[in-house]
Amino acid sequence: MDIMVIVTSSFLFAFQITPLVVLVATAIRSVILLTGRRRAFVTWTRNSLLSAISIIFAPGMIINTGVRYGICSLFGIDMDGFGANSTYAELNLFLRVERPPRVLVLVTALFISTVLSVFLGFILIVLPMVIIIGAPVVLVCWYIAVCILFNTSIRGGDVTLLGAALKGQPGRGIAELILSISIIVFLYIALSGVIA
Asked: How many other CB atoms sit within 10 Å of the CB of residue 143?
């Protein structure tokens, strides 16, 4: 029963800190991305530092991509599957831009997959300490947690797909975007009282 309380409170906390995690992870990745070459390929990658970090944090990339794949499948979003990006040594989930989902469906799916990723990262930090397992396992869990949180950022493909969805339904798309953002803000306001 105590574990269920911990999991529930961890989910609420993860929900609350998701925007901060996404902003920090996106800011870090953007700064690293701006250090790379933008024109010609000199080696196999445009950004050696980001590629090295992507390889170091690969477990989080795989988990985030898996969570996103599961949620997008659940919401019926068309996908071309997984693919590796040699530009930055990243694993990506390729969503079909030519057949974008409705804006409300897309924002909901991206939001839920992001919250779940943050929750998985946070629970890997908290649960091993509560269960009191050996130090090596705790360190592995913390490493995977940092990997997950680092990879929980806004991707260029998300923005491209959202733009395609808005372009496909100009009036209705903007209304759905405003509605979905309003619902998310309302949830944050409502759950802040529960968490505080």
From this structure: 15
**How many CA atoms lie less than 13 Å away from 178 in the CB half-sphere?**
6
CA distance 110 to 149: 15
> d(Cα 10, Cα 166) in Å, to the nearest integer?
34
Dump pLDDT digits (tens) for 21-66.
Answer: 999 998 988 888 777 654 444 444 566 777 778 888 888 888 888 8
Record the tokens describing residue 20, joined without a space. Answer: 């901060």
CA dihedral 41, 43, 47, 53 (to 10 degrees): 150
Look up residue 83 and give its two tokens: 């693919």
1-32: b or e for each residue (b if 16 or more CB lie within 10 Å)? eeeeeeeeebbebbbbbbeebbeebeeebeeb
The predicted model scores a pTM of: 0.81
With CA atoms as reference, report the closest residue to 154 among 144, 141, 145, 163: 163
User: Hey, is 94 helix, strand or coil?
Assistant: strand
Q: In the chain, which ranges are E strands?
A: 79-85, 90-95
Measured CA to CA, the distance from residue 68 to residue 155 in angstroms comes to 12
